[in-house]
Amino acid sequence: MRKTAVVMDSTGYLTQDILDRFHIRVVPLKVTVGEETFTETEIGTLDFLGKLRQISGFPTTSQPSVGDFLTVYEDLFAAGAESIVSLHLSEGLSGTVVAARMARDLASKHDVHVVDSGTGALAFGLLAWAAAEWAEAGVPVRRIVEHLEDLKTQTRLYFILETLENLRRGGRIGGGAAVVGTLLQIKPILCVNNKGQIDVFAKVRSRAKAWGRVKDELAKDLAGGRPHRICVQHVGSPDLGEKTASELRREYPQQDIRVFGAGPVIAAHVGQGALGLAYLPWP
């Protein structure tokens, strides 16, 4: 067991090989479809989307309990961890980080550092990945937290949606924006603003134009020549994810570009076919 353990919630969507390699513990959110409730780690995205097609209502999501976090913290301390960095999706999107703070206050040891990532989905996952690499390198826990606060300001997340309807029904975006999007048949590009909330970055008339706009933002951030970790995130559309990543690899062969899927919680809010791009400077 490393001196500093890293904990994240399930909406960061790192793959199991990364979680295993860096010993990252995951506390899952929950999703309810009809009368069934699952933790996000026990139902696949395609299975979840299939269940959605069998019901008339809308799925709901819920944060982990304080007890869920406390169990993980105590397990890590019992295994020999001296400190914990617990990183979670933005408080502007979920109460998950609040539950983590409450568990921190109840833990038998007090060296638990709960960090609000200020973002969500794979952008938050990339931050947890970075924290775990620093922990492996023996960086002191307080320095890890300082590094994360700096890296948060340089982390980007964009999502291209087929529709805003899921976000509207889930209460994550205003109804007016959804109506406008439907009437104009636009492809909205979403981001997370400086308040940690979902915001509309741009509205364009086609997926191709939306992707072009996101690529323009990426090009601006890569213009300085600094290495980045760039990740494509798909929602139940692995072929689209691989096609998009292949395009980026041809354009940026020196960059670290990977593909990740999104789980049921994000799928519930953005819908199948949504495409995300998350990146940050690394190393």
Automatic annotation (TrEMBL):
Keyword Repressor attributed: no
InterPro entries with a match to the protein in the record: DegV, DegV_C, DegV_domain_contain
UniProt cross-references to PROSITE patterns, sorted A to Z: DEGV (PS51482)
Sorted UniProt keywords: Lipid-binding
Domain of life assignment: Bacteria
Keyword ATP-binding: no
NCBIfam families documented for this protein: DegV
Protein name: DegV domain-containing protein lin2658
Species this chain originates from: Acididesulfobacillus acetoxydans
